[in-house]
């Protein structure tokens, strides 16, 4: 069974940093490109970031997070990460990781508040 | 950036009825990169359709997708009680950003 489990969410003040993790099992992690998608409370889905499979040499980011967020992966640990810096109120959301488009975790809530 | 527009915003139907959801893109792209998701409250999105018309594993055949270019459609042939949810289209894999549409809520009439 494929499982994706996000962690690292919580409360953080504006301007702060947070690192999200996504532990993946049940598939050959290195073979899959990965995405982070977020959903603000009561709002729709917003794609955040993409990393290619293998060594993850290709990264893409939504304009709303470019320059502040970094995506990376550790294939030895079957894990995906999202380093979030200079957090803003509007970054408050549930953050989901997904293998491409087909397998999703249950999400981790990030709340940016003073 | 490809902008996706979904209509209607809300669709009020009864169980057993047919639902037709539209997703329109601001520019043409390959249908190979159009997906539909279902999301229920408190749950992660669930992939229904990829490549515009291919049902994901385990998706009932009452769900079908069609379209190309800039116009795509998700059809639910006969609504079951568990189908009342929010549906999103997404363009992926062609070029980033991999945008989502704003969603269509299918609720019980």
Protein model, in words:
The complex is a heterodimer of chains A (114) and B (109). By secondary structure, chain A is mainly β. Chain A has no helices and 11 strands. In chain A, the strands form 2 sheets. In chain A, strands 2, 4, 5, 6, 9, 10 and 11 form a 7-stranded mixed beta sheet that branches. In chain A, strands 1-3-8-7 form a 4-stranded antiparallel beta sheet, with no helix packed on it. In chain A, a hairpin with a 5-residue loop joins strand 4 and strand 5. Chain A is globular, with a radius of gyration of 13 Å. The model of chain A has no long low-confidence stretch (mean pLDDT 97). Chain B is an all-beta fold. Helix content of chain B is 0%, strand content 52%. Chain B has a 6-stranded mixed beta sheet with strand order 2-9-8-4-5-6, with no helix packed on it. A 3-stranded antiparallel beta sheet of chain B has the order 1-3-7, with no helix packed on it. In chain B, a hairpin with a 6-residue loop joins strand 4 and strand 5. The radius of gyration of chain B is 13 Å and the shape is globular. The N and C termini of chain B lie far apart (36 Å). Chains A and B meet through strand 5 of A and strand 4, strand 5 and strand 8 of B.
User: In percent, how helical is the residue content of chain A?
Assistant: under 10%
Approximate helicity band of chain B? under 10%
Q: What order do the SSEs of chain B take from the amino end to the carboxyl end, as H and E?
A: EEEEEEEEE
Fraction of residues in β-strands of chain A:
over 45%
Question: Which chain pair has the greatest contact?
Answer: A-B, 19 and 22 residues
Rg of chain B, rounded, reads 13 Å
| Number of helical segments with 4 or more residues of chain A | 0
- Say how many strands of chain A there are: 11
* 3D shape of chain B: globular
Number of DSSP-assigned strands of chain B: 9
Estimated structural class of chain A: mainly beta
Strand fraction of chain B equals over 45%
The biggest sheet of chain B, with number of strands, parallel, antiparallel or mixed sense and barrel status, is:
6 strands, mixed
How far the N terminus sits from the C terminus of chain B, by CA atoms, comes to 36 Å
Encode the helix/strand succession of chain A as letters.
EEEEEEEEEEE
* Cα distance spanning the termini of chain A: 40 Å
The main sheet of chain A comes to: 7 strands, mixed
Task: Describe the strand arrangement of the main beta sheet of chain B, using strand numbers.
Answer: 2-9-8-4-5-6
Low-confidence stretches of chain B: none
Mean pLDDT of chain A: 97
Choose one word for the global shape of chain A: globular
